[in-house]
Specification:
With about 725 residues, the protein is mainly alpha-helical. It has helices at about 20, 50, 60-70, 75-90, 90-105, 115-120, 125-130, 135-150, 175-180, 190-195, 195-230, 235-260, 270-280, 280-295, 300-330, 335-355, 360-380, 385-390, 425-435, 440-450, 455-485, 510-515, 530-555, 560-570, 575-590, 595-625, 630-650, 695-700; strands spanning about 160-165, 180-185, 405-410, 420, 490-495, 505, 690, 705-710.
Length: about 725
């Protein structure tokens, strides 16, 4: 760790120092302007994580969404980042390299200059096109399965109209299902096909195969394509990934219209996920976009750019399902939404191929290639081992979540093993159990189709209602709850003794030298939250989800089912709380690189939500659709209950007396061993000053309430 620098001059002794000013004494680890894909924030990588009641997003995404609604939420942090970025840039080589990159960008014409706005402006349209096709896919799958397995029910081409009951119908589920008059364009009845368990079983098998294929291939290839983007450019990788997306669209539309003449019938749909998964799928596109935004934005403005990106993505995915339902209602053609989505994807691909400039400078890609070649030369493994390691390298970050040995040995005997800390491992297991629910969306939509007779129009309305409820909870309700019930921030005391550091009432002492090193401390926002409060909030959110899914299994009308779904949307506080607790567990046990932590959590997210979850729920619905279709909700209740049990066994470690190492990398320095150091911001004759709730006062536009107490003479 680098040694801290002494300030050029001591601060004025008699000047009161507010909380926001004192924060500048604690520096953050310097961030690179051009991080790799691995360093991108823990953001949602799929539509289900944004608009479904089962989807969970992390603390970073929730904060960015809140910043999108309240634009100046992080204004102070941005200012601090700007100041510290200039103060801590001491490496001359890095400075010259950054200057060369800036010179390259300044030499480009404005239309070839990389900027985050190239993708931010198009985000709502692409997310809208994707989300409007979620519900109609189930209807197309149902028709294809009916054509192939129950040809006596139908005869004609795909493209149906529906006289269905409203989403708010009070009719019992089975009655609503029977009265829904589904028919193809030739007016032949379709109600038998929709409610046939054999057809639903075939639909579940098809959806399971497609989702699992894309999920497994995406896990195996996303990391590879991400590393390639560092060496050969972001836009090149995105150009390949959008090819897979277009092939999937073309395969879907051609199968929907000509399934009877294509080889395999409805199973020809598998061609799309196979190609798309090999080219990285949607997760590679999102990772490349996040890297592009990070490459082209200043560190101080990066949080605002990401908040715009995720906010507009959330907006598009909330509007898309309703827009798709309206279009289907007006045109009486389910395929209209797929035509529109394909047109948007074609425009998107053309922009990436011919318009959007590359974000990485040639010298950056050359440097990444050189580092990669050096790593290959130094690797002392055989070709087979190297291939095996490369294929399964995405699982490597999971080792960070394994139980760690902390604390003294049991009984104080040095011959015994150290005590193991299982809390982070249990938290990862709980997170995985919750993320499994993302894989249930297809089964849940099939259940709604089977039990309530809903078509894609009603499913689209339901999706938008639940998505809007999640947005309200994450941007309004959850911040209010956090503000009202979080523990109050302890006051800062500026003492009269020069050897005593500036600390809160209950915080451990901290030396400036330790503070100016690469501090592993959580981001400033974590000082406003207690890990205990976040852990209890996560437990409460899971309890609310358990109640919601239990009631959904018992619902017999569409309106009651929708109300229960909205209740479950208000349990989405688990994601942000889980991320905060994970940060506290990691840093309090000596962890320093939060990027590795969230990288490991993102692996858990991908494996559970894209591979294990869809397979588990697909198999469950396929086996129980004829006898007990509510089993998918019982499975969700069981998974959430197991996650809650894991959370109950988590114990937060107590803060260490010194949470960072000294400059020498050895033991932490005692609090009062260097009275000659500049450990305070006041003179020895400065009176005791207590600043209470300065953040709250400043947030309301007032100055901090500074209350001097009795002057203690030295």
């Amino acid at each position: 760790m680098p040694h801290s620098r002494a300030p050029s001059r001591p601060p004025a002794p008699s000047r009161p120092v507010s909380r926001s000013q004192s924060r500048r004494a604690i520096s953050r680890p310097r961030t690179s302007r051009n991080p790799s894909v691995a360093s991108i924030s823990y953001l949602p990588t799929g539509p289900s994580a944004l608009i479904e009641p089962d989807g969970q997003i992390g603390e970073e995404a929730a904060e960015l969404l809140h910043e999108f609604i309240h634009p100046h939420h992080h204004a102070e942090d941005t200012l601090i980042a700007e100041v510290e970025e200039g103060e801590e840039d001491e490496d001359d080589d890095d400075g010259a390299f950054e200057e060369a990159i800036e010179e390259w960008r300044r030499g480009l014409p404005w239309w070839k200059r990389p900027s985050p706005w190239w993708f931010i402006l198009g985000t709502p349209f692409s997310s809208m096109a994707m989300s409007m096709t979620l519900a109609p896919r189930i209807q197309i799958y149902t028709e294809l399965a009916c054509d192939q397995y129950k040809p006596e029910y139908s005869n004609g081409t795909v493209g149906i109209v529906a006289d269905t009951t409203s989403i708010f119908s009070e009719q019992p589920a089975r009655e609503a299902s029977v009265r829904a008059e589904w028919r193809i364009l030739s007016d032949r009845p379709y109600e038998l096909c929709v409610t046939d368990p054999d057809v639903q079983q075939a639909v579940s098998r098809l959806a399971l195969t497609m989702i699992t294929t894309m999920g497994i291939l995406g896990c195996l290839t996303t990391g590879f394509w991400g590393s390639i983007s560092d060496r050969y450019g972001r836009t090149r990788i995105m150009s390949l990934a959008v090819v897979g997306m277009l092939i999937t669209d073309a395969t879907f539309i051609s199968t929907a219209k000509y399934s009877r003449v294509l080889p395999g019938g409805m199973w020809f749909l598998i061609v799309g996920p196979l190609v798309d998964g090999c080219l990285g799928s949607y997760s590679t596109i999102m990772a490349a976009i996040h890297a592009y935004v990070a490459d082209t934005s200043e560190p101080a403005a990066r949080a605002r750019m990401f908040s715009l990106l995720i906010g507009l993505m959330f907006t598009g995915m909330s509007i898309g399902p309703t827009l798709g339902s309206v279009l289907i209602n007006r045109t009486h053609n389910v395929l209209i939404v797929f035509y529109i989505a394909t047109a948007v994807h074609i425009v998107y691909a053309c922009l990436i191929w011919f318009v959007v400039p590359e974000s990485l400078a040639p010298m950056q890609m050359q440097q990444a290639r050189k580092l990669h070649e050096d790593a290959l030369r130094t690797a002392s493994v055989t070709k087979k081992k190297a291939l095996f390691k490369r294929v399964f390298s995405f699982l490597e970050p999971l080792t960070l979540l394994l139980p760690a040995s902390v604390g003294p040995p049991k009984g104080g005997n040095p011959l015994k093993k150290q005590r193991g800390d299982w809390s982070l491992f249990l938290l990862a297991l709980a997170n995985g159990c919750v993320l499994l629910l993302i894989g249930s969306i297809t089964s849940n939509m099939q259940y709604m189709t089977l039990m309530f007779g809903w078509n894609s129009e009603q499913l689209g309305y339901w999706t938008s209602i639940v998505g809007a409820a999640r947005a309200v909870h994450l941007t309004i309700v959850l911040p209010i709850i956090t503000t009202l019930f979080r523990p109050k921030t302890p006051p800062i005391q500026l003492t009269t003794e020069p050897e005593e550091p500036l600390t809160g009432a209950s915080s451990p002492p901290r030396s400036p030298s330790a503070a100016r090193t690469g501090s592993p401390a959580p981001p400033p926002k974590s000082r406003h939250h207690s890990p205990v409060f976040d852990l209890n909030l996560a437990r409460l959110s899971l309890a609310l989800d358990i109640v919601s899914y239990a009631l959904m299994a018992l619902a017999h009308t569409g309106v009651f089912f929708t109300a229960c779904s909205v209740l479950g949307a208000f349990g989405s506080g688990f994601g942000p709380s889980m991320s905060s607790v994970a940060t506290a567990l990691y840093t309090r046990n000596g962890g320093k690189e939060l990027g590795k932590l969230f990288g490991a959590l993102s692996v858990v997210q991908i494996v559970c939500s894209q591979v294990i979850g869809p397979f588990l729920y697909g198999m469950t619905f396929m086996r129980t659709v004829k006898t007990f279709p509510q089993a998918v909700f019982m499975l969700s209740v069981g998974s959430l209950t197991l996650a809650l049990v894991f959370l109950m066994f988590i114990r937060l470690p107590k803060p260490a007396q010194q949470d960072v190492e000294g400059p020498s990398g050895g033991a932490a320095e005692p609090a009062h061993t260097h009275p000659d150091r500049e450990d305070t911001l006041v003179d020895e004759r400065t009176p005791l000053i207590v600043i209470q709730e300065a953040d709250d006062d400043e947030g309301r536009g007032r100055k901090a309430d500074v209350k001097p107490s009795t002057v203690i003479s030295a």
